[in-house]
């Protein structure tokens, strides 16, 4: 354990004093035949299934199932409306607007910066190196007494590569603030999750999601794993019923299908490797960044014209060609075998037409 780390010293004073809203479902736990405590409509819902009762505010059944899959106890788990809710809560808990700052390591997930702007928190950008790894010396130089959070996306979006584990551990050991490791794409990577190291690093917060490998993007369920003390802070700040009952019900059913998801992951990784090899054969492709995610970053000729050509064909990819360190690149999500075949044919057609 890091003896010098103090969670209390990082926490905003108003959050320390905050008395969270106590909902009807917080005050009563157990089974009852008549519920007249929450001003709900006792007659039901105008739908085939009743949603007239407020959901479990702490999603106990979902967390119990996730524990069996993730190996993280419920007390170390926060469920949010996407990972974006967890990101926003981190700013509100630890960053005093107009005073504190965070460190971002672009190119990276854009919501870290957006959330900083929403919360009026300064951010300091320390670009990744040319091989998309952490610049430890410049990160150390950017830290000051008001630096509260460092965001690290691994596998990284939009580059797809994993960040060296030993470099993340170096920051965890030496930084006195919160280190947020965003593992949205961890299911597609060979490296183990940092969620297994919560006891070792009290300043660690790990973000994951059901939007990628689990195919539940429309449900907006994100996860944060951290010490019990940090999770208690999340639960203190979050809205009373942040995960609706429909989402909880569907997720509970979906989590029974681990084998299906594992098969999808294998196929996505195989398709990723096949698509990489096919693209690397094209003379117009300068580089395909090795990926541990369900997408690849491809540097190629005429990226903007190719992007528009694909749009005209009804194929939507992500143009990253103007992003620093991703100049000339498109980000391609791995689709089904049929979709990937159509994508490749379209790329071949474009370059043969413009040759």
UniProtKB/TrEMBL annotation:
In short, the EC number is: 2.6.1.9
Occurrences of domain Aminotransferase class I/classII large (ranges):
49-347
Keyword Transferase included in the entry's annotation: yes
| Cofactor(s) named in the record | pyridoxal 5'-phosphate
Carrying N6-(pyridoxal phosphate)lysine, the residues are 212
**Broadest EC class?**
transferase
Q: Name one Pfam family in it.
A: Aminotran_1_2
Keyword annotations from UniProtKB, A to Z: Amino-acid biosynthesis, Aminotransferase, Histidine biosynthesis, Pyridoxal phosphate, Transferase
Keyword Nucleotide-binding in annotation = no
Q: Which reaction does it catalyse?
A: L-histidinol phosphate + 2-oxoglutarate = 3-(imidazol-4-yl)-2-oxopropyl phosphate + L-glutamate
Pathway the protein takes part in: Amino-acid biosynthesis; L-histidine biosynthesis; L-histidine from 5-phospho-alpha-D-ribose 1-diphosphate: step 7/9; Lipid metabolism
InterPro entries linked to this entry: Aminotrans_II_pyridoxalP_BS, Aminotransferase_I/II_large, HisP_aminotrans, PyrdxlP-dep_Trfase, PyrdxlP-dep_Trfase_major, PyrdxlP-dep_Trfase_small
Q: Could you give the subunit structure recorded for this chain?
A: Homodimer.
- Which family does the entry's similarity section mention? Belongs to the class-II pyridoxal-phosphate-dependent aminotransferase family. Histidinol-phosphate aminotransferase subfamily.
HAMAP family attached here?
Answer: HisC_aminotrans_2
Q: What is this protein called?
A: Histidinol-phosphate aminotransferase
Look up and give the organism this protein is from. Answer: Sphingobacterium suaedae
């Amino acid at each position: 354990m890091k003896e010098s780390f103090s969670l209390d010293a990082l926490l905003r004073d108003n959050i320390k004093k905050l008395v969270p809203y106590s909902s009807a479902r917080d005050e009563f736990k157990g089974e009852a035949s008549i519920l007249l405590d929450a001003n709900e409509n006792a007659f039901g819902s105008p739908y085939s299934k009743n949603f007239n009762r407020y959901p479990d505010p702490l999603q106990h059944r979902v967390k119990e199932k996730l524990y069996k899959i993730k190996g993280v106890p419920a007390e170390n788990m926060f469920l949010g409306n996407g990972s974006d809710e967890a990101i926003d809560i981190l700013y509100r808990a630890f960053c005093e607007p107009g005073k504190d700052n965070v460190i971002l390591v672009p190119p990276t997930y854009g919501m870290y910066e957006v959330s900083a702007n929403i919360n009026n928190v300064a951010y300091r950008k320390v670009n990744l190196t040319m091989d998309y790894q952490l610049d430890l010396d410049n990160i150390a130089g950017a830290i000051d007494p008001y630096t509260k959070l460092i965001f690290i996306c691994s596998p990284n979006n939009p580059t797809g590569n994993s960040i060296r584990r030993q470099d993340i551990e170096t920051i965890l050991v030496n930084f006195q603030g919160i280190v947020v490791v965003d593992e949205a794409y961890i299911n597609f990577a060979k490296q183990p999750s940092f969620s297994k190291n919560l006891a070792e690093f009290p300043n660690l917060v790990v973000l994951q999601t059901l939007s990628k490998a689990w195919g539940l993007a429309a449900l907006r369920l994100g996860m944060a794993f951290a010490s019990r003390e940090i999770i208690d802070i999340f639960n203190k700040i979050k809205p009373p019923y942040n995960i609706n009952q429909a989402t909880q019900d569907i997720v509970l059913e979906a989590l029974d299908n681990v084998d299906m998801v594992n098969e999808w992951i294998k196929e996505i990784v195989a398709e990723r490797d096949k698509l990489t090899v096919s693209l690397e054969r094209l003379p117009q492709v300068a580089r395909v960044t090795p990926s541990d995610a369900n997408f690849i970053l491809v540097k190629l000729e005429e990226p903007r014209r190719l992007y528009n050509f694909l749009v005209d064909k009804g194929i939507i990819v992500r143009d990253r060609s103007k992003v620093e360190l991703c100049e000339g690149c498109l980000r391609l999500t791995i689709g089904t075998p049929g979709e990937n075949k159509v994508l490749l044919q379209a790329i071949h057609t474009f370059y043969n037409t413009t040759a």
